UniProtKB/TrEMBL annotation:
Domain VIT, first and last residues per copy: 43-172, 884-1013
GO CC aspect terms: extracellular region
Family: Belongs to the ITIH family.
Localization annotation: Secreted
One Gene Ontology term of the molecular function aspect: serine-type endopeptidase inhibitor activity
Protein name (record): Inter-alpha-trypsin inhibitor heavy chain H3
UniProt function note: May act as a carrier of hyaluronan in serum or as a binding protein between hyaluronan and other matrix protein, including those on cell surfaces in tissues to regulate the localization, synthesis and degradation of hyaluronan which are essential to cells undergoing biological processes.
Domain VWFA per the UniProt entry, residue ranges: 298-481, 1139-1280
């Protein structure tokens, strides 16, 4: 559950256009769509006044009111804003709400007039949406926002000195996960507001066991403002900072309120039957009995290790599996089945999770590497077969649960690859006898395929998002399903008493979760009935029955005016709709249709915005008389995934504040291409120069089988000015998967399918509906092509006077719903569906006063652009809208090109010392000089030792100087307006070196950078990391690494984050006893993302890991030229026991994700302690709290208790680092004096903090002095982890 809220003025910018040669290269800038033809300088004035204009919108109040009644949350978000300007302007309202919630109401009140949203069937609302879009209006209100949320945004034009109040209501049933419910409210007001308030009231007749509140933005000053009152059955939480308390600094207009306000709670669970609420003729049954023993599980882990899992994904999977294996119980059985194009199981059958077996499995997991293709069908069937055989041979406990956990990141591309066939094979093999859980890693996976396959087989699917926390996501999902308590759970109610039950049979109940059943009573006045629950437990069947009785809410809450009396009915409706939507994806066609129809009917009846409905919001009329509706939809997980695929690649504009719908891409005019970039409030347009008759590939998507080509035609004859205009006159559209082909020209529309041809004429309106394609022809105007479950194209006909001496009829081509195409789509238009990044700078006067010039950087090129004007036919086929645009002339676009000729990396490692030379040669093919850039990312542990540039035979070499002397030259350059710094941070491990130089026309430059580093051994290996990002295919690309290790090489492993199956074979690896040679030299064509395109697959990290042999205890000593180096890491030494004190910051600044991840990490670390180790836990904020007064031996029982303590860790208070560390030192020294720890053991303190000391001793040098004095003379190490 979440929200809020940005209300601000949006300064709109118009279109940026560029003119390109046929290779589609070049670039452009920006203008306001509201400018007149003469008003080109207005854009500059608007930009200068933007902050002043924004200040004329005052957000008066932001309020979030959430009422939770028996887990059902009803949230109302309200915001009031005032237009203080002297003219009307647009005001925006933005809210982020949980993706599991349903919007149930939205209204706007403007000067006493209320405009209320109406929930309609999606198909009906879609017509209004398309009408609005075709009129050029922004109609979509909802888009995905991160992993858990979706954003609702709306704008309205408000008169001068008037105000508007926005009210949004949404509802959801809170889900219990890992033993708690979570209420998540996202607040982003963007400015301090007069009235800011979050109020949450929780009513739980079952009794509240605990409530925990925190926020990601809570500072020590704001922490006391969170008021929390908890009684037995009610909790009240509020947060109402004043306008001054919201400010980042006194008097400034920035707010600290920006992030998530989170409430977590659970209820008391005393009854085995659970909790049953009966209100107003409906009931809800919550079932999660306490103290049940876990049922042993038999789990087959099916792990994708195909080439696409290379790099970070594979590393994180190994990490997660290692932790998961450690978490198995000894009575569990497990199997490991890695797969690529082949399927290889670790053991032939499942084995018991003994410590010895888990240890062996962990070693095996660490050796799993990526390779080959993806055979999902074969891998899952192998797992099912293994479980079935072991069950038949009675190798598994009779009372245990069987499950398969599949982790994959891509689509099946070997073996059986047809998705419905795989689903049928798996469903048939499982036969309802086990659960299948599917984890889709990243954005290339077909989530819908995994979701349906899981639901067909008693499981669920979950998306694993690529990111640094992917390991934690995997571990978190496993934790949810790791402890089954009951299987085959039936909740039974008298047939003559209840009706319209939600699902009442569940395959399993997991620890920390909850089963919810709701229904309607046949007799509204009935206040009691018999309830029975049956299930299969660990040692015996579970059976309980009791009488359900209505409770008197007035007695439980005598001081409350109960205003949410229909909560059971709405909870029932919410749950029923969710389950019907699930059923609409599986089963027979008639069953799916029936479930869809019922879900739609209930969504409309209860005014829920679901995937089948839309909320239509009618805006007040503006001065020009338009009355454009706005549409709020509910996104499915598949739609969220599609949006992310293109969304992550758009570069956000700094002035962008409101949602717009997915972009439209089209060609029209001479031939005028336009690519809308809504994230930039912008558009790019460009023209192609080529001969009439040329055929261009516009869209090519190999994944979906869609191909679109277009052919251009010229004027009838050469006009007097000698310039021949070209236009598109014919398009071909093919959908290979559906077997559909269309040919459209200016005379005829032809459709081919199943060997038949249907011919339509532009001179007649017509509608044609088929199983795979729908066509709609508007006479002499437009053709709409809707492909089944895919993209929509619109083709416009432009008719020219027949007797025109030069021009001909021509066509325009528009792409809608482009987000439904795969990320691998290409073509002149298709390449932009992923987004495009560009930057426009240096706006300056041009040769013509009303046409200013600017500089644009796009796709690695720098172009000069000039303001021009382009026609946009979207709103009116007959009369084009003229838009401001910056245009690149045909000649300049052809000449302004940079070709990177070679990129070479040559690394020589001699006895761990790496010497790397990076060389790149580039050619300026333009007819004028231009800037060429050289960028390299190198390890932050490396020292640059040389840099040179060779330009036309002249070599310029870098000189190393004392920093203070060099600083004066730097400051002189900066004061002259030049960019002088060459190095900046780049991620966690690297730093970026960049330099640019102006190169004459037709000249070349060679850059050479040398850096050196001593490789550090970590976790038993050395790592050579080379980051390569050439940005385009190059004639000569080469990475060569030679390793010389006289001590002998134990192993070498090469990998890369960008290696595909095709590129994998190009990595050449030759290893002898003391030398290794690794090279990677793809050809120009092998580097391309697709044949003939200018995008390269080379983009990421090339990684080599190796270790040396270690036979002598003395280590290895090298003596060369009067110097020696000694490497000491003797093999086979027994480990020394350690005594470790974990000093953990739990101050207010650690709230949210930090404290959550700290808990997770500590739990894993504690499990990793050896039995002979000793440990202690010290938590600190403004006070210091120790778990125990002395160090404790790391026995299994003590570790288990410590983990339980860690799980309760929560944030609060200030930061007293000094006293916390001194407490740890004192504890270790006392233990050492009293001989409570082994004499031969290592003492250490591990400090984790995220901030500065702000209570107790806060002077940093004094803290350092205190700690040094306390430790002095003691053999004690202090390690610090710092949250960033």
């Amino acid at each position: 559950m979440s929200g809020l809220l940005g209300v601000r003025l949006l300064l709109l910018w118009g279109s940026a256009c560029l003119w390109l040669p046929s290779q589609a290269r070049g670039a452009l800038v920006i203008s306001s769509p509201h400018e007149t033809l003469q008003g080109t300088r207005g854009a500059v004035r608007s930009l200068q006044k933007r902050s002043t204009i924004e200040a004329t919108v005052e957000v008066h109040s932001v309020k979030v009111d959430c009422t939770v009644t028996s887990r059902f949350a009803h949230t109302v978000m309200t915001s009031k804003a005032l237009n203080k300007a002297n003219s009307a302007q647009e005001i925006f309202f933005e809210v982020e709400l949980p993706k599991t919630a349903f919007i149930s109401n939205f209204s706007m009140e403007i000067e006493g007039q209320v405009y209320v949203g109406e929930v309609k069937e999606k198909e009906k609302a879609k017509k209004q949406y398309e009408k609005a879009v075709s009129s050029g209006h922004t109609a979509g209100l909802v888009k995905a926002s991160g992993r858990k949320m979706e954003k609702f945004s709306v704008s309205v034009n408000i008169a001068a000195k008037s105000n508007v109040t926005f009210i949004l209501t949404y509802e959801e049933l809170l889900q219990r996960k890992l033993g708690q419910y979570e209420i998540l409210t996202r607040v982003k007001p963007k400015q301090p507001v007069q009235e800011f308030q979050i109020v949450t009231n929780i009513y739980e007749p079952q009794g509240i066991s605990y409530v925990d509140t925190h926020a990601t933005f809570l500072s020590n000053d704001l922490l006391p403002l969170v008021e929390k009152t908890v009684t037995d059955k009610k909790a009240h939480i509020s947060f109402s900072p004043t306008i001054e308390q919201q400010r980042k600094c006194p008097g400034c207009d920035e707010t600290v309120i920006d992030g998530d306000f989170i409430i977590k709670y659970d209820v008391n669970r005393a009854k085995s039957l659970g909790d049953i609420q009966i209100v107003n003729g409906y009931f809800v049954h919550f079932f999660a009995p306490p103290n049940l023993p876990r049922v042993p599980k038999n789990v087959a882990f099916v792990i994708d290790r195909s080439g696409s899992m290379s790099g970070t994904k594979m590393h994180q999977t190994r990490q997660a599996l290692t932790t998961i294996l450690q978490d198995l119980h000894e009575d569990d059985h497990f199997a490991l089945i890695p797969f690529d194009s082949s399927v290889i199981s670790w053991q032939e059958s499942l084995i018991k999770a003994t410590k010895e077996n888990v240890a062996e499995a962990t070693v095996y997991v660490q050796k799993i590497t990526d390779r080959g293709a993806t055979d999902i069908n074969g891998a899952v069937l192998r797992a099912v077969d293994m479980l079935v055989n072991d069950r038949q041979e009675k190798k598994l406990p009779e009372r245990s649960i069987d499950m398969v956990i599949l982790l994959t990141d891509g689509m099946p591309n070997v073996g059986v690859s047809r998705l419905p066939q795989i689903q049928e094979n798996v469903r048939s093999a499982i036969g309802g006898n086990m659960s299948l859980f599917c984890l889709g890693f990243g954005n290339d996976v077909d989530y819908s395929f995994l979701d349906v396959m899981s639901k067909q087989n008693k499981g669920v699917a979950r998306r694993i998002f690529e990111g640094s926390d992917a390991t934690l996501q995997l571990e978190g999902f496993y934790e949810e399903v790791s402890s089954p308590l009951l299987t085959e759970v039936d909740l039974r109610y008298p047939d003559n008493t209840v009706e319209l039950l939600t699902t009442n049979h569940f395959n399993q109940l997991f620890n920390g979760s909850e089963i919810v059943v709701a229904g309607r009573l046949i007799d509204n006045n009935l206040d009691n009935f018999m309830v029975e629950v049956f299930g299969q437990g660990f040692e015996e069947d579970f059976k309980v029955q009791d009488q359900a009785r209505a409770v008197d809410w007035d007695v439980i809450y005598p001081d409350e005016e109960y205003i949410f009396g229909d909560f059971t009915e709405r909870l029932w409706a919410y749950l029923t709709i969710q389950q019907l939507l699930d059923k609409s994806k599986i089963g027979a066609a008639d069953e799916k249709a029936n479930a869809t129809a019922k879900a739609l009917d209930m969504s409309l009846r209860y005014s829920f915005v679901t995937p089948l409905t839309s909320m239509v919001v009618t805006k007040p009329e503006t001065e020009d008389g338009t009355d454009s509706p706005l549409i709020a939809d509910k996104l499915t997980e598949e739609q969220r995934q599609q949006a992310e695929r293109i969304g992550y690649q758009h570069s956000p504009a700094v002035h962008r504040v409101a949602y717009v719908p997915p972009p439209t891409y089209f060609v029209d005019g001479d031939p005028h291409f336009m690519i809308e970039l809504p994230d930039r409030d912008d558009a790019l347009c460009f023209n192609i120069n080529d001969k009439p008759g040329t055929i261009f590939n516009l869209v090519r998507d190999a994944n979906s089988g869609i191909l679109v080509n277009g052919q251009i035609i010229g004027d009838k004859k050469i006009p007097p000015d000698g310039k021949i205009n070209t236009y598109f006159w014919r398009f071909g559209i093919v959908h290979q998967t559906l077997g559909v082909r269309l040919e459209v020209d200016t005379q005829v529309i032809s459709v081919f399918q199943d060997g038949k041809r249907v011919k339509l004429l532009w001179s007649d309106s017509a509608s044609l509906k088929g199983p795979n394609v729908d066509l709609l022809v508007t006479k002499d105007r437009s053709l709409t092509v809707t492909l089944k479950d895919s993209v929509k194209f619109v083709i416009l006909l432009h008719k020219v006077w027949k007797k025109h001496p030069y021009h001909r009829d021509y066509l325009g081509f528009y792409t809608l719903d482009s987000h439904l195409l795969s990320p691998s789509v290409h073509g002149l238009l298709g390449q932009f569906y992923h987004g495009i990044e560009y930057e426009v700078t240096d706006l300056r006067p041009g040769e013509v006063p009303e046409k200013p010039d600017a500089t644009m950087f796009v796709k690695g090129r720098e172009l000069n652009v000039t303001r021009g004007w382009q026609r946009d036919f979207r709103n009116d086929v007959k009369n084009a809208q003229v838009q401001g645009a910056l245009v690149v002339s045909h000649r300049d676009a052809l000449t302004q090109m940079v070709e990177v000729h070679s990129v070479k990396v040559d690394c020589t490692v001699t006895s761990r010392f790496a010497h790397t030379v990076m060389t790149s040669k580039a050619l300026n093919k333009a007819n004028s000089s231009q800037e060429i850039f050289f960028e390299v990312e190198l390890p932050k542990t490396a020292f640059i030792s040389n840099f040179s540039m060779e330009i036309e035979g002249q070599v310029y070499v870098g000189e190393v100087k004392e920093k203070e002397k060099a600083k004066k030259e730097y400051e002189k350059a900066v004061s002259s307006g030049h960019t002088a710094g060459l190095v900046k941070a780049s991620g966690r491990k690297l730093e970026e070196f960049s330099v640019s130089v102006n190169i004459a026309a037709k000249s070349s430059v060679t850059f050479i950078l040398t850096y050196e580093e001593l490789l550090q051994r970590k976790l038993g290996q050395y790592e050579i990391l080379t980051r390569v990002k050439p940005k385009q295919p190059v004639q000569e690309f080469q990475i060569v690494v030679d390793i010389y290790e006289p001590q002998g090489i134990a192993f070498v492993e090469a990998s890369a984050t960008f290696l595909t199956n095709e590129l994998l074979s190009l990595v050449e690896e030759t290893v002898t006893d003391s030398k290794a040679h690794i090279s990677f030299s793809p050809t120009l064509e092998q580097q391309r993302k697709c044949p003939g395109c200018e995008d390269t697959v080379i983009n990421g990290d090339f990684i080599i890991k190796y270790d040396v042999k270690r036979e002598e205890s003395l280590g290895e000593i090298q003596m060369v030229n009067g110097y020696f180096v000694h490497f000491f890491a003797p093999p086979n030494l027994p480990r020394v026991p350690k005594n470790v004190v974990f000093v953990i910051d739990r101050s207010g600044s650690m709230s949210g994700r930090k404290i959550e991840q700290t808990r997770e990490a500590l739990e894993a670390i504690l499990k990793d302690l050896y039995k002979e180790d000793h440990f202690a836990l010290i938590l600190f904020d403004s006070s210091i709290v120790t778990w125990r007064d002395s160090l404790t031996k790391a026995t299994e029982q003590n570790v288990f208790k410590a983990i339980a303590y860690v799980r309760k860790l929560s944030d609060r208070g200030a930061t007293n680092i000094n006293d916390a560390v001194l407490r740890a030192v004192d504890m270790l020294m006392k233990e050492r004096r009293h001989h409570n720890i082994p004499e031969r053991s290592a003492d250490m303190i591990i400090l984790l903090t995220d901030g500065m000391p702000n209570t107790g001793e806060s002077h940093l040098p004094t803290i350092q002095k205190n700690v040094n004095a306390a430790i002095e003379g003691e053999d004690l190490s202090v390690l610090s982890w710092i949250w960033k």
